[in-house]
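Worked Example 4.2. Read the sequence first, then its structure tokens.
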Amino acid sequence: MKARKLVSISLLIFAFLSLAGAACPQTAPLEPAQMPARTSFYFLWRGLPSAEARKSSALFSLWDDPDFAPMRSGIIESFANHAGKDEAKKQMARQSFDDFATLLENPFVFGFLGKPDSVVKSSGAKWQGIFFVYDRSGKEALLTKTVLAMRAQGQETPQISQVTIADVPALKIERKTGASYWVETGKYAVSANDPAVLEEILPVLLHKSAPPATLTASAEFQEAQPLLGSGLFEFFLRIPRIKEFPADNSVKGFKIAPLLDALKLDSVHSVAGHATLEGGRTRLQGAVLGDPSPSTLFDIWSQAKSAPASLSFVSPDTVSYNSGQFNLLALYEIAKRAMRMYMPPSPQGGPDLIESIAQSRLGMSIPDALGLFTGEFASIQTSPSLDAAKQSYVLKITKKPETLKLLRTILSDRVESEKTENDVTFLKISLSGSQTASGTAQWNFYHVAVTPDMLLASSRSETLRQLLAERRTSVPGNEYSTLPKFQSARSQFPAELSSISFLDFQRLDWQAVKDKWLTDAKSAARKKKTVAQGGEAAKQQPEGVAIPNWLSSANPQVLSHHLHFMAGASWKDAKGLHFDQWIE
């Protein structure tokens, strides 16, 4: 677990919570039962939850906490700083942020309609199926203000004209890059880049007519329906069938349809999911649905397991753990199928040549080399401050001697040292070299430990030795898997999993985390300044280094009051690959 993952959590908080007010979820402006059958994608935001739900939710209560106010202000200020040095532009950006947050109190739908047959059959016809429908109830004036401000941005002044689409007045906004259309009618604001899209959407919104066939009638939607219909938001993406791609459609000379056929894209039907509030939890559930028969894209995920082998390295002091199981041989076969489309097997080239080169350089075939790894990958973080030196990575292996031989072959002269202690072989690997102004050489190293069944890696050898010691001295009944919080999280998921992860917020030293972030931010900013100024002089000017305001103003203790635990998992079954993650 690196610092950037905690930053991504902050962005998750921002995405959910940078919203003003406490409105209740409303009816969506366009439900799937109203969308045309050709709808291939939609994202539906149902508006903010009720005040009571916000109070119960860990994330929303964090955002509303007065002690979090400086960080809220810092986030908004960082947003404004992207507008540049012009103070007027910064003030406009701050106001835009506030306006945008207020607009998100109401529901909206963003989606895409697939090409109609008339466009598919028309040679050279371009289709832009994007649409946006917003419930502007109570936000009419604010919406107008925001739209006008957005149109005013940029160097080009758009040409605006009045047109009529589906018997409704509309604005046509033309720029050099193309045209878009904007309609405000009744309680709705609607936008699209193609008038044909509005001709389908507007009659449904105004209750004048219904589409001849709706999205809910499609097999893909019905397959995904258990994941849809509730929550803060939901999303649905129908994966196009190969026959829907024109035979001559290509990218840089490579035809798309044959490649997708080789990858067996038709085995994947859709991607769908939703986010819900469940008391203190914010939960995201979804799936990649399709036909997980053998020799399809679903082969990438190996057979699920009840407990990953790397879990034996996890101690009660572990802060975060992530483990996934992949089928490396299947992934290689999928890549070969794709290569064969453009590189036919032959003695002079293609996959056969790649196999031959690998055999000569590795001393074994690619399948044999991949077979040395079971496909289980894990990362473990034991530092309360998220120190990268305490981060380690674990790979499950099958044969230690052959794995060591492969490592020596691949790494060659980068192996600085090697020694064996009992049944563990330690390797010190040189990553890269650099030179200071005084001419002193500096080298970056990584450390690897190979046991009879595992390969461990870290930037510090001490971290590996501590991890190995934890495994050797683990007392039965005191493993992490026996802790109530882990058992409680594990019970939320099926018995056999393709991946599992957790982050224990309560084990973090938030002040130390903040201090580390500040140090890293200053170091990155100083390095950027040094490069910009082109010399060592900039290194002597730390006072000019800027760091994000939201980070410097953060009160780390408020995070510990609201954030307790995050867990997630994925698993494969007869319907596809499912994922479930929650934070509380």
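Now turn to a second chain, presented in exactly the same format:
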Amino acid sequence: MSAEEAAAVASLPVSMTVAESAAVVADLRRTRRRQRVAAIHWVDALYQVYITGLVALVAVVLASAAIGDGKVGPDALSDVKAHGPALLGLLVAFAVFAGLRSGSRGGPLALEQPDVRHVLLSPVDRGVALRGPAWRQLRFMAAVGAAAGATAGQLALRRLPGNPAEWMVVGAVFGLTVVGIGFGSALVASGTGLKSAWATLVGGLLVAWSVGDLIGKLPTAPATIVGRLAIWPLRTDPLALLGVVAAVALVAAGMRLVSGTSLEAAERRTSLVGQLRFAVTLQDLRTVLVLRRQLAQERPRSRPWVPALRSHPRFPVFARGVRSVMRWPLSRLVRVLVLAVVAGLALRGVWGGTTPLVLLAGLALWVAALDAVEPLGQEIDHPGRTDSYPVDRGELLMHHLPLVASVSVGVGLVAGVVASVPIGTAVPVGPALATAATAGLLAACGAVVSVIQGAPDAVDVLSMTTPEIAGSRTVLRTVWPPGLAVLGTLPILAARAAERGFSDPPPLAAALNVIVPLVAVAVLVGGWVRFHDAIHAWIRDAADQMSPTKAMERANASSDDETETKSTKPKKSAPAKPASATKANPTRPPSRKKTPGPAPKGAQGGTSAKPIGRKRDQKK
């Protein structure tokens, strides 16, 4: 809330009714919104939207066309029709689970602190004050969901039969439905004050029901009915429209119950989300992770899952990391396992012919590795403590890498087991485990790079160069860590090519041929961690040597030092003059100042402000 709105709320009389106060605040916000919109010419706004949409559409179309995956066969098409709704329904169940959990912790709204302190505590209906931010957040999330759904439809039409326009429209509608169900669930949970335990229980039961439906052990889950909407071009099912009705109903109920949001939870969420946005702006991933855990109220266990076996371990750094992992809360363990399952399913899709799923597999393992890198992140968070150790900082960080690699490779092996389960289109065991282990190792490298590189410096040589160079550097810093994780999934592509007869060696040998250079990349990342500080110090020194400004500063500093050195040297004393010379040349007395004579005849101007023509000047 702006200062003008805060002053308007504070100036409202106590005798004013709630409806009148709400009308005043609503009118003020509508006026400010019209002023902001009026400040932007509609041609400029339309041009920005047109350019953004055109660039995104061209990028998606070119990326999907460059992959070149062919149409699925009859068996694969029957599997999509049979298991596709349950698999996509699992996504809907996770959206409900996340929405209920977020609403039980004060979400999903992230208000400004003045809104919580002034508007929500003023004689104004909370529903009126909260529905505006809720609609704005819903519009943004709906746009993102529709864009993601349309992109998925664009990728699906490359492999599945049907009208291309229908696939994109159905994908956009499904994305809107998922967003509406998740956001509406969060608003309902927040407005009703649902407890976190009940939210976890209800959401977990929905997810478990969807999983049971996917494996064929339970009857059709409600989320599976919503998932049928995504494959509408393959099999039309009017019952799937119930998902759209459920999304609209949940959003309407959430907007009606939003006034019951807890002020304490809203204020706590406001402070954390404000810091989180600032950290995202600075590209400080480590701070983002810490704040997200605080926002989710994710605390380590007071008792480890497995107690320490030795009180004085031989490798203390590794043992300290193991104790950190043993204190993971249950929510973190479940999240890592879910990410491993998602990566395994994505690898199955890649083996079946959907190449873009390598991005999903790599990103899932990278996010899981960000939890495994927590002990290393603790060392990065306390640079003063690491500098006080009698060990070089790079060597100390190197001691954390075995644990990070072990946990991440273990998560990758779980993904490999999921990918090799003999159900449907399964990946052979050898290529699945080899690819998953390599992907886990490279995901650990990406997580380590993300944490160690930290936020970029506010002012340096590259940030002050042309926008093209600075922008390319920002993109490289952002893409490099997850790109390493995606790079680790390349062995499955080589094994798939060998399986289809495009290369001579068998699938496992083809995968191992790609794994060898990837392991070399991991070794290079380890060397980068060991000499990271020295490399950056050398780069800073080289940049200072090449900088003209720094050269001028060094020249000025050297000249100042020379001047100071000359001024501090003792001066030679002049020889004393004899006394006779002093007597022969006595000092001259000071000359007396001559008094001015009488003024000449005629009109003369004076120095005062009086007018010319005084009496003494007029004497003739």
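Notes for the reader: Residues 70-281 form one domain. The chain has two domains: 70-281, 326-547.
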